[in-house]
Amino acid sequence: MKFIVDSADIGQIREAYEYLVCEGVTTNPSILAKSGRNPYEVLKEIRAFIGKDADLHVQVISTDYDGIMAEAEKIASVLGKNTFIKVPVTKVGLKAIKALKAKGYGITATAIYTSAQAYLAAQAGADFVAPYVNRIYDIGNDGVAVVEQIQNILDAGNYKTKVLAASFKNVGQVTAMAEIGAYSATVQPEVLWKLINNPTVDAAVEAFKKDFETLTAKGKTMLDV
Ligand code: G3P
Fold it and tell me: What pTM was computed for the model?
């Protein structure tokens, strides 16, 4: 499962790329708002860091067809061809996805809470569908099961569309995506480090070090013996 960073904080993105294998960055209007800066200034900085060939996902704000189309054109022209235009899957959004695909844009169909939305987005030609796992739980449904249904629909229909699972609040939700065989997942830094931060592991590593020091001396390693 490809791992994408869900952030517009360049420091957090750099840290994720330093320690992990990351294959792109996703943003949304709420994430961009947290930066308090001009969105294009932030996005250009991210693009420069990840490189022109990496996937960058940027969402439109408009809710009308003409507005979505115009925003898509500006986003792609400023940020390059490997920028996927995130379009929320509404009735108007589907019309825009269909038209944008015909013009050759890369599309991430977002704000997906149901398998029906994902099915229609795949039919419209979206490259990615982004189901919101945790937010689906928030409204009383089973987020992992919905992604499993979506994956089955995509497989059964032989769609080229891939899952880009989003919205996670805990480690189990993320690893469940890998288990299902989701193509990719985008994870916010707050949740991302929970995948590896584990006091039990740290304690084990510390105990190994101390045991070795009883054989040698404090601070000694395999370089010193
Ligand atoms: O890209 C969508 C994702 O960031 C939503 O996450 O945590 O706001 O539900 P969240």
Answer: 0.95
